[in-house]
């Protein structure tokens, strides 16, 4: 809609879009994190992800994106503020921390697979040792999730025998096998060869379509544009601005957002990287 570029009406549009979304699953309220080194990685970050929403977090290097995801998962303590998952406050220690971590799947840039274990064993590990499911159920679940990411035929391969994209898909299957309520992706495609980026983005897009709640830190602007329901731009430990992808990419309010987007979008991606379908 061409008349939508007017600032006030865009704000209204964004509000309506948010109001239509489901209940809040992840709530981040005024979170601060200062590393022991003195670096203030998060300086009052607030954002929410509704159930079934894909929230993409973008922003320059060092802006605090990874720190934020680690805090959501209880891997990193916070100094001030609150993080709630399904209304329960995230802790970093003890049984509650473990419970939260079970509900949140995390996929890192560096896969983090067990190198001595086959793809299937990697996916079996959580359901077996953490959920303590019966052996047959573990087996069935692991095979089902490997199949879901398109790797049924690689069950017996070791990580070293797989491409980067395949390893990352195993890592996604491993996280999904815990049947998490939400998935966090931290630059899941940044370490991949260009030819395997698309296969991982496609799996992520499929998850989004199925209604998985996802917090996705990414440099893949094509993914953020087409798959995100909501885009959060971070800079220097703070949220610079947030909105629908259409508003953020089409009519960023702040000059700093525009500069950042120009910088990243001047490194265009080959068509093969772009997710194949339009907005959900
Ligand atoms: N473990 C750590 N100890 C001390 N400082 C850290 C640690 N991890 C990150 N930092 C610092 O905190 C700030 C935020 O880092 P973070 O990794 O969260 O940024 P980012 O947005 O994920 O960056 P990138 O896009 O490069 O991954 C940076 O200044 C970084 O140097
Ligand atoms: Mg990072």
Characteristics:
disordered C terminus; alpha/beta; binds adenosine-5'-triphosphate; binds magnesium ion; 10 helices; 280 residues; 40% helix
Please identify the oligomeric state.
single chain
Largest sheet: 6 strands, mixed
Query: Which small-molecule ligands are present, each listed once?
Result: adenosine-5'-triphosphate, magnesium ion
The total strand number stands at 10
Q: What is the helix content?
A: 25-40%
| Strand arrangement, major sheet | 6-7-8-3-9-10
Give the N-to-C terminal Cα separation: 18 Å
Compressed to H and E, one letter per element, the order equals HEEEHEEHEHHHEHEHEEHH
- The assigned structural class equals alpha/beta
| H/I helix tally | 10
> How large a portion of the residues is in β-strands, by DSSP E?
15-25%
Unreliable sequence segments: 1-6, 270-280
């Amino acid at each position: 809609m061409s008349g939508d570029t007017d600032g006030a009406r865009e704000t209204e549009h964004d509000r309506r879009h948010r109001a239509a979304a489901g209940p809040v699953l992840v709530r981040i309220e005024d979170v601060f994190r200062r590393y022991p080194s003195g670096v203030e990685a998060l300086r009052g970050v607030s954002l929410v992800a509704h159930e079934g929403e894909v929230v993409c977090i973008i922003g320059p290097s060092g802006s605090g994106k990874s720190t934020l995801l680690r805090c959501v998962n209880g891997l990193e303590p916070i100094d001030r503020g609150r993080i709630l998952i399904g209304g329960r406050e995230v802790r970093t220690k003890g049984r509650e921390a473990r419970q939260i971590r079970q509900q949140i799947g995390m996929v890192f840039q560096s896969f983090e697979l067990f190198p001595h274990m086959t793809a299937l064993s990697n996916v079996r590990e959580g359901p077996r040792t953490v959920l303590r499911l019966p052996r047959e159920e573990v087996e069935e679940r692991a095979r089902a999730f490997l199949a879901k990411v398109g790797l049924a035929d690689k069950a017996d391969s070791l990580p070293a025998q797989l491409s980067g994209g395949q390893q990352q898909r195993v890592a996604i299957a491993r996280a999904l096998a815990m049947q998490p309520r939400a998935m966090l992706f931290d630059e899941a495609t940044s370490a991949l060869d260009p030819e395997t980026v698309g296969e991982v983005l496609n799996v992520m897009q499929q998850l989004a379509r199925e209604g998985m709640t996802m917090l996705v830190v990414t440099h893949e602007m094509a993914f953020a544009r087409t798959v995100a329901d909501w885009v959060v731009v971070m800079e220097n430990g703070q949220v610079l601005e947030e909105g629908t992808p259409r508003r953020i990419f089409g009519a960023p309010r702040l000059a700093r957002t525009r500069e950042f987007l120009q910088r990243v979008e001047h490194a265009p991606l080959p068509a093969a990287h772009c997710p194949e379908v339009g907005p959900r």
